Amino acid sequence: MPELDSGATAWILTSAALVLLMTPGLALFYGGMTRSKSVLNMMMMSFGAIGLVSLLWVFYGYSIAFGEDVGGITGDLSAAGLRGMLESGTEGGIPDLLFAGFQLMFAVITVALISGAIADRAKFGPWLLFAGLWATLVYFPVAHWVWGGGWIFEMGVLDFAGGTAVHINAGAAALALALVLGRRVSWPKDKFKPHNLPMVLLGAGLLWFGWFGFNAGSALAANGTAAVAFINTQVATAAAVLGWLLVEKIRDGKPTTLGAASGAIAGLVAITPACAFLEPLGAIALGVIAGVVCALAVGLKYRLKYDDSLDVVAVHMVGGIIGSLLIGFLAMEVLAGEGNDGLLYGGGITLLGKQALGSVAVLAYSFVVAYLIGFAIEKTIGFRVSADAEVEGIDNAEHAESAYEFSTTGGGGGGAFAAAGIAPSATPKTEPTEPVSEKVAG
User: Fold this and answer.
1) Within-domain flag for 3
2) What is the pLDDT of residues 217-276, one digit of tens each?
3) Which helix (DSSP H) or strand (DSSP E) does residue 291 occupy?
4) Residue pLDDT, tens place only, 70-98
5) Distance (Å, rounded) from C-alpha 259 to C-alpha 417?
6) Which CATH number characterizes residue 362's domain?
7) How many domains does the chain have?
8) Residue 425: inside a domain, yes or no?
9) Which chain positions lie within coiled-coil regions (predicted)?
10) Rounded distance, CA 61 to CA 64, Å?
């Protein structure tokens, strides 16, 4: 049995916790961008993904993603229920069970990412049904293709931490669901501005923090590769923030806090597949390109008339494509492996071709399957809330709650009294008083 590496084990335990933190961070990020009457539904989609996907991963998800390869398409079910992993020892110095737990957090957030495209109009129950089916039919097999020894892995496509398996995958599914559910009531006439920008910034900050576990943790060791991924994650994200703000300044005249938060996420997305394969200067170039292109890509939904509520397509699908393709230009052989120099470092076009093929394959598969699942749910049990519920407030319609209590009287009909079922006492009558003199005393 290989010897346990306590340093690597401690780092991956920490990284797994950081990646889990990203999903509540995503809930805040997405929640702040929605209207106040749908923020709870938006956040519940992320928390629902944590609950559902965690169980599916144990039942069969891990086995499909990382079990023994079957035809390059899926893993077998020998590890269903994580059977045998308690005694299976270590792989690369960390317990096999810890690797399964680390990868679980990737599955959770990938599913949660999709929800931003259908904010303000999706029923919670059908969303959970979609999440379970999509994870089973798309995420688990695609994770096998990319990381578990499947056909994309064998072809030599480079994806260190999830450009294809996570971001292109989720972005394509988000586009499919946005088309199935259709536009929000009065979109694009109404602007649907974020209701709480400080919440958006807090969520973006938590995502940025957690992303170091996402990227540097994917080295599966506390080593030089983790250090490269760590610094590249930071500088690419910083560059993307400035790139997005530059677009806003030139186009709109003002840089915005929403733009800074969105630019950060675009940079994090784009550097994810490439973080261990680039030198820091290459990571900065990638970040600038991602920030600029993703900022411009937000406008596509207005031109093409699809209502992607929180710009999941522009940030995650487009950002994932940018990161995956730029590996073909900016990868360094000393980091990416023999024969994997990018075009700008003297390599040929072969690597770029592989990156493009892997990206297109994941995009197409995820889009088609997500569309079919979403369409079937909409035509059977219904995926979208009624127009009345959407206008009046999806939080109340789906969860019988509201995020904010606007009662102006202490102990009035709302708040803790209402939640406890206690009728407020009548307001005591007061005797009329003499009007106060307008003269100032003295």
Assistant:
1) no
2) 999 999 999 999 999 999 999 999 999 999 999 999 999 999 999 999 999 999 999 999
3) helix 280-297
4) 999 999 998 899 987 776 667 778 999 99
5) 40
6) 1.10.3430.10
7) 1
8) no
9) none
10) 5
